[in-house]
């Protein structure tokens, strides 16, 4: 059993953890599936996966108790749930502190991606900064 599974069972003893995604979905009520729960896949040492669900608050608690090298979770996005575009792009701002605006790499990437995905509908908005328009489409998490 991975450390992550042990931590989940310690923090949330009533959580369902399964070896198959379909088993997890079959054991949960329709109300849980349609609500704001996050469905996650845990990668084990032997490259197998286990599945569970949590709220964002539970996930934050889990991450606060978990060693960094054990945070091998992947979100499962169901076709019935609408989500923003999801791209995992790691840019370490603390490694770029010598640049005047050390977030410029991530901001530039988001702007280019937004423009590329929306080139047909591209409109110039003078009243808003383009990064604000871009962030309406993408989910950005700081780590």
Features:
three-stranded antiparallel beta sheet, alpha+beta, 143 residues, 6 helices, 2 domains
Secondary-structure map with pairings?
Elements: H1 3-11, H2 21-27, H3 30-34, E1 38-43, E2 49-54, H4 56-65, E3 73-76, H5 104-117, H6 130-135
Antiparallel strand pairs: 1-2, 1-3
What does this protein look like?
- With about 140 residues, this protein is of the alpha+beta class.
- The protein has two domains: about 5-75, no CATH class; about 95-135, no CATH class.
- About 35% of the residues lie in helices and about 10% in strands.
- A hairpin with a 5-residue loop joins β1 (about 40-45) and β2.
- The radius of gyration is 19 Å and the shape is globular.
- The model has no long low-confidence stretch (mean pLDDT about 75).
Give a short synopsis of this structure.
The chain has 143 residues and is an alpha+beta fold.
């Amino acid at each position: 059993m991975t450390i992550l599974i042990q931590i989940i069972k310690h923090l949330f003893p009533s959580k369902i953890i399964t070896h198959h995604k379909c088993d997890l979905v079959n054991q949960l009520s329709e109300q849980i599936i349609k609500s704001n729960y996050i469905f996650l896949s845990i990668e084990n040492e032997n490259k197998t996966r286990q599945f569970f669900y949590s709220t964002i608050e539970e996930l934050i608690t889990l991450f606060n108790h978990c060693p960094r090298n054990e945070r091998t979770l992947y979100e499962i996005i169901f076709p019935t749930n609408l989500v923003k575009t999801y791209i995992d792009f790691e840019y370490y701002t603390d490694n770029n502190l010598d640049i005047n605006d050390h977030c410029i790499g991530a901001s530039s990437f988001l702007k280019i991606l937004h423009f590329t995905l929306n080139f047909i509908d591209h409109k110039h908005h003078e009243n808003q900064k383009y990064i604000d328009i871009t962030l309406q489409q993408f989910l950005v998490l700081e780590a």
